[in-house]
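@channel sequence for tomorrow's demo:
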Amino acid sequence: MEIMITNDDGIDAPGIKALYKALDGNKVIVAPNEPHSGCGHQVTTHKPLETTIRSKYEIAVHGTPGDCSRIGITHYARDVEWVISGINAGGNLGVDLYISGTAAAAREATILGKRAIAISHWIRESKPIDWDKACLLARKVFAELFDKPIPQNFFWNINLPHVFANENEPEIIYCDPSYDPLPVKYRVEGNIFHYTGEYSKRNRKSGSDVDVCFSGNIAVSLVRI
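structure tokens (generated this afternoon):
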């Protein structure tokens, strides 16, 4: 299987290394040279884009995740069967999909006719991510998704839960993305606004991807472009 790997945390992020380990087949990484977390679906058309070939399987793009999908698919990885974006350090649940560079890379790949997956890892209680565990969970869900048909104009969005030692092994649960807003709160000092919304306190409609992931299971959603 030919796979292109990308992300929005940058080519040196631990999540992309865990993703590389979780995947079998012929793999090439085409990822941003620097972090672009939360950049949404930005693409670069107003200035030149530089690429750096770091090894036979690693290309750093001096641009956004969307740029990586465009350049990878049209130049460095034309024959890939899948584009996998992640593993993002932090959840991309519900309306996060509009903000997420991780999701944008998968969405752009879908627009360009490739099968795609965005995969993220929720961070619970500000604790560090166990990337070895994340790799095992990712491998588990990929084994199931690669055998499933995916409708045209859709991509998969995966959110791994933050599971601590001695907690139950997560189940894979297919669910719809939440449409509830993120917490929008600010501390105001004169004309300066400091965002104070707490991600973990967002609404959890029963059965939504937020609820599934926050409850300790792997949330898998089909997302239409």
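heads up for whoever presents: The longest strand covers residues 82-89.
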